[in-house]
């Protein structure tokens, strides 16, 4: 997605700067971005690049979980405001609301959509209690990890204990969902531009 974003920005005549520590990714290839920094995506390094390059805007949604987390931290610290950098694409508020499982469930409920019965837990004991209330099998998902780190299905308390240990290694908050295994999933996406052109 990062490569496609660079190509789209290039078509619009916008100069791009990429920060990526992985030299093997396509988006770091010569001739794509105008400048490429092979640095860790951490608030300290990203701020140094912003200070040196003075970009007008930043796209956080093309760097996976690392960029999302980094962007949230930098926004909270006021770094983007300090350098007059506009957050392009998905707003920080939406990133936080989609990553905090409790906030996300509340937002879904607000628009009247149904979600699988679930509970937010903060330790293994709470996870086991939640699973008993919801009934096995359950799905355990770490919050603040859209990439699915530490997520999986548990058929019984032993499996859930092991899974919860992994989930809590990635996050302080874990959501326990009633499993929807066997249901048919239909994915529906709409892409809309500034002129209200839509592709479904």
Automatic annotation (TrEMBL):
<dbReference type="GO" id="GO:0046872">
    <property type="term" value="F:metal ion binding"/>
</dbReference>
<dbReference type="GO" id="GO:0005524">
    <property type="term" value="F:ATP binding"/>
</dbReference>
<dbReference type="InterPro" id="IPR005479">
    <property type="entry name" value="CPAse_ATP-bd"/>
</dbReference>
<dbReference type="GO" id="GO:0006207">
    <property type="term" value="P:'de novo' pyrimidine nucleobase biosynthetic process"/>
</dbReference>
<feature type="domain" description="ATP-grasp">
    <location>
        <begin position="105"/>
        <end position="193"/>
    </location>
</feature>
<protein>
    <submittedName>
        <fullName>Pyrimidine biosynthesis</fullName>
    </submittedName>
</protein>
<dbReference type="GO" id="GO:0004151">
    <property type="term" value="F:dihydroorotase activity"/>
</dbReference>
<dbReference type="GO" id="GO:0019240">
    <property type="term" value="P:citrulline biosynthetic process"/>
</dbReference>
<keyword id="KW-0067">ATP-binding</keyword>
<dbReference type="InterPro" id="IPR005483">
    <property type="entry name" value="CPSase_dom"/>
</dbReference>
<dbReference type="GO" id="GO:0004087">
    <property type="term" value="F:carbamoyl-phosphate synthase (ammonia) activity"/>
</dbReference>
<dbReference type="Pfam" id="PF25596">
    <property type="entry name" value="CPSase_L_D1"/>
</dbReference>
<dbReference type="GO" id="GO:0004070">
    <property type="term" value="F:aspartate carbamoyltransferase activity"/>
</dbReference>
<dbReference type="GO" id="GO:0005829">
    <property type="term" value="C:cytosol"/>
</dbReference>
<dbReference type="InterPro" id="IPR011761">
    <property type="entry name" value="ATP-grasp"/>
</dbReference>
<dbReference type="GO" id="GO:0006541">
    <property type="term" value="P:glutamine metabolic process"/>
</dbReference>
<dbReference type="GO" id="GO:0006228">
    <property type="term" value="P:UTP biosynthetic process"/>
</dbReference>
<dbReference type="GO" id="GO:0004088">
    <property type="term" value="F:carbamoyl-phosphate synthase (glutamine-hydrolyzing) activity"/>
</dbReference>
<keyword id="KW-0436">Ligase</keyword>
<dbReference type="InterPro" id="IPR016185">
    <property type="entry name" value="PreATP-grasp_dom_sf"/>
</dbReference>
<keyword id="KW-0479">Metal-binding</keyword>
<dbReference type="Pfam" id="PF02786">
    <property type="entry name" value="CPSase_L_D2"/>
</dbReference>
<dbReference type="InterPro" id="IPR058047">
    <property type="entry name" value="CPSase_preATP-grasp"/>
</dbReference>
<keyword id="KW-0547">Nucleotide-binding</keyword>
């Amino acid at each position: 997605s990062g490569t496609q974003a660079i190509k789209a920005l290039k078509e619009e005549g916008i100069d791009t700067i990429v920060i990526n520590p992985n030299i093997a990714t396509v988006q770091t290839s010569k001739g794509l971005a105008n400048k490429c920094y092979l640095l860790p995506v951490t608030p300290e390094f990203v701020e140094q690049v912003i200070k040196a390059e003075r970009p007008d805007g930043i796209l956080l949604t093309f760097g996976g979980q690392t960029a999302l987390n980094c962007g949230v931290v930098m926004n909270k610290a006021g770094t983007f405001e300090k350098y007059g950098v506009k957050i392009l694409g998905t707003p920080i508020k939406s990133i936080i609301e989609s990553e905090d499982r409790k906030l996300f469930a509340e937002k879904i409920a607000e628009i009247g959509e149904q979600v699988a019965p679930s509970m937010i837990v903060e330790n293994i004991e709470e996870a086991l209690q939640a699973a008993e209330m919801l009934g096995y099998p359950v799905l355990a998902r770490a919050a603040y990890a859209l990439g699915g780190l530490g997520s999986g299905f548990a058929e019984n308390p032993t499996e859930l204990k092991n899974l919860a240990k992994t989930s809590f290694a990635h996050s302080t908050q874990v959501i326990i969902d009633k499993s929807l295994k066997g249901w048919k999933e239909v994915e529906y996406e709409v892409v809309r531009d500034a002129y209200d052109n839509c592709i479904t």
